[in-house]
Amino acid sequence: MFDVGLGEMLVLVVLALVIFGDRLPKAAGQAGRALRQLRMMANSAQRDLKEGLGPDFADFDVTDLHPRNFVRKHLFEDLDDDFAGNDRAKDYEPANAAPDLDYGERPPFDDEAT
Fold it and tell me: CA angle, corner 33, sides to 31 and 39, nearest 5?
């Protein structure tokens, strides 16, 4: 996630010791409590959202709201489902499909492509 190497981590530890000195354990404890409180708030908000939506949305997953997951679920999966429901889907072949070549075989030369 942060891509921090061993040397960089060592520099960060030394900087933390210089900046905080003997207050470092207290600062680390406060940071841990703040992180724990943020997690509890996020879990509480998630639980409240599910309760507020009611039983109709019992299978609702908050991670579906992430933009990447949202696009993947609502755009790409719908296209796959629509394509799979098509009777002609098994006969589909792209117009510019390249011929299957054996190992080491060179593709045909196309004068119009160069």
Answer: 105
Residues with Cβ < 8 Å from 55, sequence gap 6 or more? Answer: none
Cα angle, residue 68 at apex, residues 57 and 85 outer, rounded to 5°: 70
Which is more confidently placed, 40 or 100?
40
Residue 48 DSSP SS3: helix
Cβ proximity of 96 and 102 under 8 Å: no
pLDDT (tens digit per residue) in 10-56: 998 888 888 888 888 888 899 999 999 999 999 998 888 888 888 88
Q: Virtual CA dihedral for 29, 34, 35, 39, nearest 10 degrees?
A: 140
